[in-house]
Amino acid sequence: MKTKIAFTTFTAAVIAAIAPATLAQQKVNPPVATYWMSIDTASGLPMGGAGGGGMSAMDIGRMMMGGGAGGGGANRSMLLELGSQRAASGTPAAAHEIPPGLNMGASLPLETPQRAPKPEPREDGMPENFEKPRGRMLIFWGCGEQAGAGQPYVIDFAKLAQGQVPQGLFSRRANLQRGPSQSRSKTYGDWPNQRDSTRVSADGSLRGDHTVKGNYSPDIRFSLADKYDFMEPVNLSSRKSSGGGINVSWNSVANAQGYFATAMGGGKGDDVAVWSSSSTREFGESLMTWLPPSEVARLIREKVVLSPSTTECTAPAQFVAAAPSAFIRFIAYGEETNFAQPPRPQDPKVAWNPDWAVKVRLKSTSSSILGEDGMSGGGGASSRSRSDAPAEGGSSAPAIDPVQEGLKALKGLFGR
């Protein structure tokens, strides 16, 4: 039976977490301003973007590419978003005053982006530049040398009805958390932006006091403790095993709530093979982003996400045979913390009118070519540099580019 992951808006999550027993009795109004800090530590292949949501092929590509990792090291990224129900007094202006330990100056400007005109929708309702994929998708899952019963689950794209996602592609749908956005706010600002896109310091720290000020929002003040600092990088290693599978191992990441891995590669002809570490059939794309610890705990119970005590998983031999050159993505789900001001009244008869609400969420990600004999992050040799090096007596490039094959398949499903 298919299970849907239901995510509420941030406001509803705050309400439910604080006093579910009085939810029906107390009037709760949305905050005037909402501020999100989305924090990522990315290691592995140098394929970057600042970690993103949405389901366009460009956004999916960013998620596939690990959120901005440099070759072999670990990069940190932050996405700061401020949404307010107030109009700015004059030209919108806001800034996040950061702790000195972040080593990025005194503050980061939150710029209001220029609204881009929306493209005219296609008559058939599909995204612009939508391309139907060709061939088949072979879906594998589970940790073990041999694939379990019912694998692979085959989706034949030739049978794809116009505008339909193939039945069985998603065993779970994740409705991503809806944070601040330009479309849902009277005034909005974010960082990085055209004015400032300073690289996040490799040795900086988020610990300490934070203040967000603007001419369209109340002043926001909060403090972050150690466990809400940047997560450690994932050191991902994968080697072919004696049974034909590929053993994937990683370090135990401090404060990780759980782990998830997915791989994709080209097969024969136009076929694309996908594998995930879930014990049940799972395409996995919707899970490669920030998830609240409560949802991660639920997915661990459902054997979709690996527990934080797990440090290895083997991709089965049948997947390896179907995708000789595959691209693996890995995520360590981190902590999340929420703040609101003023506090919720204890008396359910008194309405709650928060001035502001803050969410800080963390993850650590990695990406590499599956089967590379070495670490993908945290000081190991670069997977890209190893895969680009000519093999003894052979050519310098693999026959199949798994990254491009995966992007091609996803572009066909979701459009650019």
Q: β content, as a range?
A: 25-35%
How would you classify the helix and strand content by structural class? alpha+beta
Sheet having the most strands: 9 strands, mixed
Based on CA inertia axes, which overall geometry fits?
Answer: elongated
Q: What is the number of helices?
A: 6
Mean residue pLDDT? 79
Strand order of the largest sheet: 7-6-15-14-17-18-2-3-9
Order of SSEs, N→C?
EHEHEEEEEEEEEEEEEHEHEEHH
Poorly predicted regions = 1-15, 47-72, 379-403, 411-416
Oligomeric status of the shown chains?
A: single chain
What fraction, in percent, of the residue positions are helical? 10-25%
Give Rg in angstroms. 22 Å
E-strand count: 18
Q: Termini, distance in Å?
A: 31 Å
- Counted up, domains total 1
Which descriptors apply to this entry?
disordered C terminus, 416 residues, 18 strands, 6 helices, alpha+beta, disordered N terminus, elongated, single chain, nine-stranded mixed beta sheet
